[in-house]
């Protein structure tokens, strides 16, 4: 029996050019290599969208004792409202000082102080000893608290002199990293290696490192039924990080424990859980004013936007 030759495709039928196969493994390998770089150096690319645009930056977490905070003196000097507040505070401090110019009045103050001193020497020594012991206990507690605070990992961004550096393209970000320009991340022990190895293709933030602050206010204005828990929770996380790293106490206060926006965050986190916890979280959300939340977040986004240094 003769073998039948396989059917040939019709000459008029175009042959399919399947080039998608090899490309997908290459892309996956490239993404894995980029992720390995960031994991090794403990620095991450971050994408942040603001009303003025979307940009890339870098973020790392390190123990607080290993970091020097960003210098905000120049930034705050350019803020007329902050400068005015500092002048008022200085005037208040000056008003609180007591200056005695008359010698006789000075002696009267000295005599009245002597009269108020305890008469018994033994009682005075005992009180002094108790005070010294109390001070020692407080010093020990303060030292322990400082040690614990120093061990806590805190965020640091690609920033300089109190301003967050955001780059419109991966190429411009890599160019800056390689330039040796001063920035707050250069204090990290892995920074020099990053500047030698990073490529534009490596600037590929993970989904959890992409933040859409430009959508937060509009989402909150839409009402409780349209609120996006993931969007709002992630916005709160990056806002806290930026506020800490860039030294924005007003933003930290607005998101601090017990604040209305912190209550919103906790209710959102509870609402995405199942069971009774999720039910109670959704009930708590209904009690949070949409207008208050949107106004608060508009202020936060505005304050963060004000300290951004956009780079092309």
Automatic annotation (TrEMBL):
Residues 89-103, 132-141 have a biased composition (Acidic residues). Residues 1-11 have a biased composition (Basic and acidic residues). It comes from the Bacteria. Signal peptide: none annotated. Transmembrane segments: none annotated. Residues 1-32, 61-80, 87-153 are annotated as: Disordered. Residues 22-32 have a biased composition (Low complexity). This is DNA primase. It comes from Micromonospora qiuiae. The lineage of its organism: Bacteria, Bacillati, Actinomycetota, Actinomycetes, Micromonosporales.
């Amino acid at each position: 029996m003769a073998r039948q030759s396989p059917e040939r495709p019709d000459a008029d039928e175009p042959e399919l050019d399947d080039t998608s196969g090899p490309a997908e493994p290459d892309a996956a390998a490239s993404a894995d290599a980029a992720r390995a770089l960031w994991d090794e150096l403990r620095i991450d690319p971050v994408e942040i969208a603001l009303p003025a645009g979307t940009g890339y930056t870098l973020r790392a977490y390190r123990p607080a004792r290993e970091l020097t905070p960003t210098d905000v003196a120049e930034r705050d000097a350019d803020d007329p409202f902050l400068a005015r507040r500092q002048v008022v505070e200085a005037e208040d401090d000056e008003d609180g000082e007591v200056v005695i110019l008359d010698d006789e009045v000075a002696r009267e103050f000295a005599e009245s102080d002597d009269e108020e001193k305890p008469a018994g020497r033994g009682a005075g020594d005992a009180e002094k000893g108790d005070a010294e012991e109390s001070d020692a206990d407080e010093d020990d507690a303060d030292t322990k608290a400082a040690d614990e605070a120093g061990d806590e990992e805190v965020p640091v961004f690609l920033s300089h002199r109190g301003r967050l550096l955001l780059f419109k393209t991966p190429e411009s970000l890599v160019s800056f990293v390689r330039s040796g320009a001063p920035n707050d991340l250069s204090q990290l022990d892995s920074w020099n290696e990053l500047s030698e190895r990073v490529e534009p293709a490596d600037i590929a933030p993970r989904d959890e490192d992409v933040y859409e602050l430009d959508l937060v206010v509009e989402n909150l204005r839409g009402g409780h039924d349209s609120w996006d828990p993931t969007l709002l929770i992630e916005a709160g996380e990056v806002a806290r990080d930026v506020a800490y790293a860039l030294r924005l106490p007003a933003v930290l206060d607005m998101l601090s424990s017990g604040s209305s926006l912190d209550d919103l965050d906790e209710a959102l986190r509870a609402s995405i859980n199942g069971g009774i916890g999720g039910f109670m979280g959704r009930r708590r959300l209904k009690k949070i004013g949409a207008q208050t939340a949107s106004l608060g977040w508009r202020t936060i986004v505005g304050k963060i936007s004000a300290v951004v240094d956009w780079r092309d």
